[in-house]
């Protein structure tokens, strides 16, 4: 897969995408990340990429022409006959980026990630090019670069062959929309707290059941909204009824 990040801070993306940091996917060549700097597509002496907003207001808006020229150049450089890249604009007004999007995007050949700064990007660039628009959450950042890295990390770990010991099929079955179960490693006792006995038993079926119950319990308590979308078996539903009944007793 090829990911192209459009940013006026290429060093920020490149530093984080060094093979030693982003790991196996880049090292093995399954993923290549490159940057395109809209500043290199300006035509004025000052290489200006932003300007004051029409209608007034504080802050600067990224101009459409340098971004458009950068995108046109990268689109023209795509391999002949390749599938069209998704052109993703990172914006606070985008749809929430979630695991289902990461899964879908991991199947693409080429992704363009367009980062804004300041007060965002001239809306005409978005209307002309964006195939997708995503936000990574309801908090204000200073630009789309960290969100782009979040997208890269989430997609990268789903690429076939990216993680030696973890396939996306496993990810789907293990994750299934629930929160993670508590994990333990040595020592067996830490400040008087012992590791749950069942995990030391070697009884795989009991361990599987304990973990499933723990995942259902932690999800019920902290993120009950996730249970509506989770893939639940009839056994899960029975366990949940029990958890609900028990939590009702203690209220
Ligand atoms: C004036 C209204 N602001 C929107 C809340 C404008 C604005 C603020 C911050 C426009 C861009 C930005 C910079 N943020 C991003 O580009 C961004 C972002 C974010 O701030 N939070 C979560 N996800 C994302 S994706 C891109």
Mean pLDDT: 94
> Any ligands, ions or cofactors bound here, and which?
ligand 9D3
Shape summary: elongated
Give the strand tally: 9
By CATH's scheme, which homologous superfamily of the largest domain applies? SPOUT methyltransferase, trefoil knot domain
Strands side by side in the biggest sheet? 2-1-6-5-7
The CATH topology of the largest domain corresponds to Alpha/beta knot
Question: Number of domains in the coordinates?
Answer: 2
Q: CATH class of the largest domain, anyone?
A: Alpha Beta
Can I get a quick summary?
This protein is an alpha/beta fold and 251 residues long.
Description of the molecule:
The chain has two domains: 2-165, Alpha/beta knot; 189-250, tRNA(m1g37)methyltransferase, domain 2 (Trp Operon Repressor, Chain A, Orthogonal Bundle). With 251 residues, the protein is of the alpha/beta class. The mean pLDDT is 94. The strands form three sheets. A five-stranded parallel sheet has the order 2-1-6-5-7. It has a two-stranded antiparallel sheet with strand order 3-4. It has helices spanning 10-16, 19-22, 24-27, 64-76, 99-105, 123-129, 145-156, 168-175, 204-222, 224-229, 234-249, and strands at residues 2-6, 32-36, 50-51, 61-62, 86-96, 110-115, 132-135, 189-190, 193-194. It starts with a strand and ends with a helix. Strand 5, helix 5 and strand 6 (110-115) form a beta-alpha-beta unit. It has eleven helices and nine strands. Helix 4 (64-76) runs parallel beside helix 6. Bound molecules: ligand 9D3.
């Amino acid at each position: 897969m090829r990911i192209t990040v459009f940013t006026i801070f290429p060093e920020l993306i490149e530093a984080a995408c060094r093979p030693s940091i982003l790991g196996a996917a880049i090292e093995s060549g399954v993923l290549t990340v490159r940057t395109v700097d809209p500043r290199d597509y300006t035509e004025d002496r000052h290489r200006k990429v932003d300007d004051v907003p029409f209608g007034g207001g504080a802050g600067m808006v990224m101009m459409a022409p340098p971004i458009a020229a950068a995108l046109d150049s990268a689109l023209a450089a795509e391999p002949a006959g390749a599938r069209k890249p998704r052109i993703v604009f990172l914006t606070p007004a985008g749809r929430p980026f979630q695991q289902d999007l990461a899964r879908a995007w991991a199947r693409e050949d080429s992704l363009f990630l367009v980062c804004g700064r300041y007060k965002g990007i001239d809306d005409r660039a978005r209307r002309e090019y964006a195939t997708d628009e995503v936000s990574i959450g309801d908090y204000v950042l200073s630009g789309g670069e960290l969100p782009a890295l979040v997208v890269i990390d989430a997609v990268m770990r789903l690429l076939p062959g990216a993680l030696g010991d973890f396939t996306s099929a496993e990810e789907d079955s293990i994750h299934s929309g629930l929160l993670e179960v508590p994990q333990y490693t040595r020592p067996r006792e830490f400040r008087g707290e012992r590791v749950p006995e069942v995990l030391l038993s070697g009884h795989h079926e009991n361990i599987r059941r304990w973990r499933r119950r723990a995942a259902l319990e932690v999800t019920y308590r902290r993120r009950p909204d996730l249970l509506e979308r989770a893939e639940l078996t009839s056994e899960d539903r029975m366990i949940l009824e029990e958890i609900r009944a028990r939590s009702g007793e203690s209220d």
